[in-house]
Amino acid sequence: MKKILLPTDFSENSWNAIKYALQLFKEDDCTFYLLNTYTPIVYHVEYIMVSPSQFGLADVVRESSEKGLNTLQKQIKKNYINPKHSFKNVSSFNTLILEIKELVEEQEIDYVVMGTKGATGAKEVLFGSNTVQAFKHVKCPVLAIPDNFEFETPHDILFPTDYEINYQDKQIKPIIEIAKQFTSRINVLHVSTGIDLLDEQEQNKAKLEAYFNKIAHLFHDISNQEVTEAITNFQQKARINLLIMINNKHSFFENLFFKSTVSQIGFHLNIPFLVIPSDKKNKIEI
Length: 286
Description:
Blueprint: E1 2-7, H1 12-24, E2 30-38, H2 45-49, H3 57-79, E3 85-93, H4 96-107, E4 111-115, H5 129-137, E5 142-145, E6 156-160, H6 169-182, E7 185-192, H7 199-211, E8 217-223, H8 227-237, E9 242-247, H9 252-258, E10 273-277
Parallel strand pairs: 1-2, 1-4, 2-3, 4-5, 6-7, 6-9, 7-8, 9-10
Antiparallel strand pairs: 5-10
Helix pairs in contact: 4-5
Organism: Formosa maritima
InterPro entries: Rossmann-like_a/b/a_fold (IPR014729), Universal_stress_UspA (IPR006015), UspA (IPR006016)
Family: Belongs to the universal stress protein A family.
């Protein structure tokens, strides 16, 4: 039984992500947690000093959140009938990322699937701040779905890596699960700097090949390109349906997302993006 967390702000972007999740996991027994968080729109000094219940504001916002989740669940059950899927509503007075982190730990969530940005997302920004914070802090795989992306079976997966990760079961499990279910081909992309791989990198590459030995896979080496440019070019030339990266400290992922602002990275991604943390315990059978 998989546990999938689906944050929603009731925007089209979040509904699109939910639709994708329902189709990606349609063959799995799943419990989906529909999450909406809310906080008062305006904070006054009096509001902070006196119980919010005296103003009735929290009650109104909570009721609106609960009503929205009930409507959403009815919409899902009407359009995506699946006896393998069950749903739980979570309406929480909390910030989104804090609530996601708490639920992931308390409920042992397997995946978080969310839109790339909310209702007010600016078009020039690739990922909204909540999505980036989820990539950075949430301790389970986070799958971000771009605006208006219609579900495609992930036949071709792009997996960029610098071979500087000592790959473990916990990191590779989600990749293998998806690849096996959809008979996917994994395209391992390494952006070369013109320097030969170190012994440790060669060992990591060999380990990766062992993980993928029962799955269709190809190794690609590209030189004279920035990582973001190489990813963009590859996923445009090939028919890539899903991008997967491991968020490992000191890897190029960290440089890609957390040492520059998202709007400056020049990374025009129009396919789903799965980010796997490096420290969630998972066991795998290959």
